[in-house]
């Protein structure tokens, strides 16, 4: 049986739906899998298939800590390293089948934010070029590269001389409330219920979206669930006090959120089409789709790949166009919205199921042996 070690970039007990669904659930049907997490303690320990290392090990002594736990890297067929280049650099010294898994252009974010703030642009640009050169040297020693989207690899890792596999975000349908979803597919709320879940920050420009809602005439409910605490959230709190149709809520645990989703009609997935987000996988919008919620989205490449006008509402990312699209939604007959809900749910079943995505990953790993 294939044996895989997945070294994550997550702290122990910090949930990540993709890691949990693929490496701690569905891949176990095909392989023995152990997963490395990190913690702030100075000791390394192992709990069943979880290996927990000191956070500092991502920079040095990672192999030493693994050997303290009697873990021999050569017993694994593949070692997959998620986002941490310093970890890959260490592992490559002890194993010849390392796969690097990149989920987001974290290095580029620093330049992007510097350009927005117009501060330290030259220094951040120089740092990025140096890191890119060093990271390319690491990647060329790996046997494959996992990317969240094709655009991420094309834009930020061009001309890689190793096999590339796209491992997008998805849905674990076994966690979904199928009875509630089925009910949502055949009903619409009165008034229509809109939903936004996830991060709020300056880069996502949620304020522009909310201004469109505030200026829209008609009856609706918009609930925002976020764990963010920053100046942008405070700005939005002040903004929505003038509109009783819009409410801000704390985040819900994953399983509770999945039970809550089927009670909504439209999910907000509008994200600026910038180099930072044009390469991302829209996890939250996929969660909307899995509950039969119609996405309100823009022209991000992954949105265009996954959705069309039969199952989603598209808008340019500006207040006036968003406002016009909201009005269009409010004027759409319930029967038409129900039809869109059914199409979006079927689309999610076909292309976003983690069970199916995992089987494709396993086939890719087999091709590398």
Coarse structural class: alpha/beta
Q: Gyration radius, to the nearest Å?
A: 22 Å
- The residue-averaged pLDDT reads 94
Shape: globular
**What topology, given as strand order, has the largest sheet?**
3-4-2-1-5-6-7-8
Number of helices: 15
Give unreliable regions as ranges: none
Q: What is the N-to-C order of secondary-structure elements (H for helix, E for strand)?
A: EHEEEHEHEHHEHEHEHEHEHEHEHEHHH
For the record, give the distance between the C-alpha atoms at the N and C termini, rounded to a whole number. Answer: 12 Å
Range of strand content: 15-25%
Main beta sheet, described?
8 strands, mixed
Number of strands: 14
Please give the share of residues in helix.
40-55%
Overview of the molecule:
The structure is a single chain. The protein is built from 15 helices and 14 strands. It has 369 residues and is α/β, with parallel strands linked by helices. An eight-stranded mixed sheet has the order 3-4-2-1-5-6-7-8, with helices on both faces. The longest helix has 19 residues, at 121-139. It starts with a strand and ends with a helix.
């Amino acid at each position: 049986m294939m044996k895989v070690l997945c070294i994550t970039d997550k702290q122990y007990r910090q949930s990540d739906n993709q890691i949990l669904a693929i490496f701690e659930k569905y891949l176990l049907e095909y392989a023995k899998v152990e997963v490395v997490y990190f913690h702030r303690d100075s000791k390394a320990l192992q709990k069943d298939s979880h290996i927990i290392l000191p956070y500092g090990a991502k920079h040095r002594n990672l192999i030493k800590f693994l050997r303290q736990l009697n873990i021999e890297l050569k017993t694994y067929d593949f070692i997959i390293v998620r986002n941490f280049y310093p970890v890959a650099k260490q592992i490559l010294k002890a194993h010849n089948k390392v796969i690097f898994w990149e989920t987001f252009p974290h290095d580029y974010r620093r330049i992007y934010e510097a350009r927005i703030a117009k501060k330290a642009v030259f220094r951040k640009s120089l740092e990025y070029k140096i890191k890119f050169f060093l990271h390319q040297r690491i990647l060329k020693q790996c046997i494959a590269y996992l990317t969240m989207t094709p655009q991420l690899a094309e834009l930020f890792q061009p001309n890689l001389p190793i096999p590339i596999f796209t491992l997008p975000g998805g849905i674990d349908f076994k966690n979904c409330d199928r009875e509630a979803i089925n009910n949502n597919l055949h009903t619409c709320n009165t008034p229509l219920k809109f939903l936004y879940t996830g991060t709020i920050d300056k880069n996502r420009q949620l304020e522009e979206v909310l201004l469109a809602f505030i200026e829209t005439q008609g009856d609706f409910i918009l609930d925002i669930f976020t764990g963010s605490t920053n100046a942008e959230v405070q700005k939005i709190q002040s903004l929505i006090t003038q509109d009783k149709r819009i409410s801000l809520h704390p985040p819900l645990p994953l399983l509770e959120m999945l039970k809550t989703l089927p009670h909504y009609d439209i999910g907000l997935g509008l994200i600026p089409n910038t180099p930072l987000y044009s390469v991302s996988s829209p996890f939250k919008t996929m969660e909307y789709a899995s509950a039969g919620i119609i996405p309100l989205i823009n022209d991000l490449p992954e949105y265009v790949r996954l959705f069309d006008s039969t199952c989603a509402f598209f808008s340019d990312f500006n207040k006036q166009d968003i406002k016009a699209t909201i009005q269009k939604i409010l004027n759409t007959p319930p029967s038409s919205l129900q039809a869109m809900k059914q199409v979006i749910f079927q689309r999610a079943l076909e292309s976003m199921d983690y069970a199916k995505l995992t089987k494709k990953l396993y086939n890719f790993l087999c091709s590398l042996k």
